[in-house]
Amino acid sequence: MATINMILQGKGGVGKSLVASLITQYLIEKGQDVCCVDTDPVNATFAGYKKFNVTALDIMNGDDIDPRRFDTLVEMMMALPDESEMVIDNGAATFVPLASYLADNNVFELLLESGHTINLHTVITGGQALPDTLSGLNSLLKAFPTPIYVWLNGYFGQINLKGKNFEDFKVFKENTSRFPALIRLPEKKKETFGRDLENLLTAKMSFQEAQDSDLPIMTRQRLRMSWTEIKAELEKSDL
């Protein structure tokens, strides 16, 4: 049946939409049929990628999130064709409502019974957001018995706690079997590679679109190098 990749993290601005775009590009380059969904009612960054034909799910009822509107998402997941993939990006505002909905309605059990595969993805970042992203990871571990791919984003600072790297964190050691892979985003100079990636995300462009564009030669070169490293990480993850 289908494989569903869902990005969940309660902390905003840590790279969830970037991860969604990277997974999508990787799967497309592998020749997969990919369906993309954005449930973020505040910053629908993923939906801005025109190349990916992302469905922006309307989950609002006035100024409030209406959990019943997640029913539409379940219908979409259940209707996925065999051998297809779905990538679902979620904003910080939808983290608690969607996680609660999924748990309260036994959605993952329903999907698994139908033969679908579920991969959760979350982002751990360094700097001031590290405790919040670790809290989000712990919430997912407690709520769902599904595999969790952990993306390590060191752009905002080293992912380091009391001199320990993520592999030495208690949460990793106690749940190693739950993590199929740790996917490290390349740590490059912010002034060059970092700025290029930021601009790419802001422009909602894929790496291939960047190569086909009239961007400066060295910008395209750095983006090509970054994408090569990211794909190597994804190949290792066996996603």
Describe the fold and architecture.
- With 239 residues, this protein is α/β, with parallel strands linked by helices.
- The protein has one domain (3-188): Rossmann fold, CATH 3.40.50.300.
- The chain has helices at 16-29, 70-78, 92-104, 107-113, 130-143, 170-173, 190-202, 207-211, 217-237; strands spanning 3-7, 34-38, 55-56, 60-61, 64-65, 85-89, 117-125, 148-153, 160-161, 164-165, 182-184.
- A hairpin with a 2-residue loop joins β9 (160-161) and β10 (164-165).
- The radius of gyration is 17 Å and the shape is globular.
Keywords:
single chain; 239 residues; alpha/beta; Rossmann fold; 7-stranded parallel β-sheet; two-stranded antiparallel sheet; 9 helices; 18% strand
CATH superfamily: P-loop containing nucleotide triphosphate hydrolases
Mean pLDDT: 95
- Quickly give the structural class: alpha/beta
Shape: globular
Q: Strand order, biggest sheet?
A: 3-2-6-1-7-8-11
Number of strands: 11
- The helix content is 40-55%
Largest sheet: 7 strands, parallel
Contiguous runs where pLDDT drops below 50 for at least 5 residues: none
Q: How many distinct folded domains?
A: 1
Strand content: 15-25%
Distance between the termini: 15 Å
SSE layout and pairings?
Layout: E1 3-7, H1 16-29, E2 34-38, E3 55-56, E4 60-61, E5 64-65, H2 70-78, E6 85-89, H3 92-104, H4 107-113, E7 117-125, H5 130-143, E8 148-153, E9 160-161, E10 164-165, H6 170-173, E11 182-184, H7 190-202, H8 207-211, H9 217-237
Parallel strand pairs: 1-6, 1-7, 2-3, 2-6, 7-8, 8-11
Antiparallel strand pairs: 4-5, 9-10
Helix pairs in contact: 7-9
